[in-house]
């Protein structure tokens, strides 16, 4: 299973300034979005995990899209990510 993860709104800075990540899970056909988020935290995130994950889900202020649609339409954190899905994380948080 291959998944594309897009990061924007400044989130890419936490992931080594890389906006697009191709993630492959050779032993799975689908993975709960919650597990994908924790995988990203544990394997891709380079700094300040608290700016991405709080209580095992994305921090408030981060918009999550599944194939360009709001994740709430798909059950949010409980969605099972499938092969060739694109998951987009957009930070709406900005310092001042």
Automatic annotation (TrEMBL):
Molecular function in Gene Ontology: protein tag activity
Protein modification: C-terminal thiocarboxylation occurs in 2 steps, it is first acyl-adenylated (-COAMP) via the hesA/moeB/thiF part of the MOCS3/UBA4 homolog, then thiocarboxylated (-COSH) via the rhodanese domain of the MOCS3/UBA4 homolog.
Pathway(s) served: tRNA modification; 5-methoxycarbonylmethyl-2-thiouridine-tRNA biosynthesis
Positions of post-translational 1-thioglycine modification: 96
GO-annotated cellular components: cytosol; nucleus
Pfam families in UniProt: Urm1 (PF09138)
Keywords (A to Z) from UniProt: Cytoplasm, Isopeptide bond, tRNA processing, Ubl conjugation pathway
Protein's UniProt keywords contain Repeat: no
Subcellular location per the Swiss-Prot or TrEMBL entry: Cytoplasm
Primary location: cytoplasm
Region forming the signal peptide: none
GO BP annotations, alphabetical order: protein urmylation; tRNA thio-modification; tRNA wobble uridine modification
Presence of keyword 4Fe-4S: no
Covalent link (Glycyl lysine isopeptide (Gly-Lys) (interchain with K-? in acceptor proteins)) residue numbers: 96
Role summary: Acts as a sulfur carrier required for 2-thiolation of mcm(5)S(2)U at tRNA wobble positions of cytosolic tRNA(Lys), tRNA(Glu) and tRNA(Gln). Serves as sulfur donor in tRNA 2-thiolation reaction by being thiocarboxylated (-COSH) at its C-terminus by the MOCS3/UBA4 homolog. The sulfur is then transferred to tRNA to form 2-thiolation of mcm(5)S(2)U. Also acts as a ubiquitin-like protein (UBL) that is covalently conjugated via an isopeptide bond to lysine residues of target proteins.
Family the UniProt entry places it in: Belongs to the URM1 family.
Protein name: Ubiquitin-related modifier 1 homolog
Natural source organism: Dictyostelium purpureum (Slime mold)
């Amino acid at each position: 299973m291959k998944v594309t993860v897009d990061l924007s709104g400044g989130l890419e800075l936490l992931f080594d300034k890389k906006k697009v990540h191709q993630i492959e899970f050779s032993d799975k056909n689908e993975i709960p979005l919650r597990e994908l988020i924790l995988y990203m935290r544990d394997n891709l995130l380079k700094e300040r995990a608290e700016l991405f994950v709080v209580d095992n889900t994305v921090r408030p202020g981060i918009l999550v899209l599944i194939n360009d649609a709001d994740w709430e339409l798909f059950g949010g954190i409980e969605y099972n990510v499938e092969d060739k899905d694109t998951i987009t994380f957009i930070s709406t948080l900005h310092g001042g």
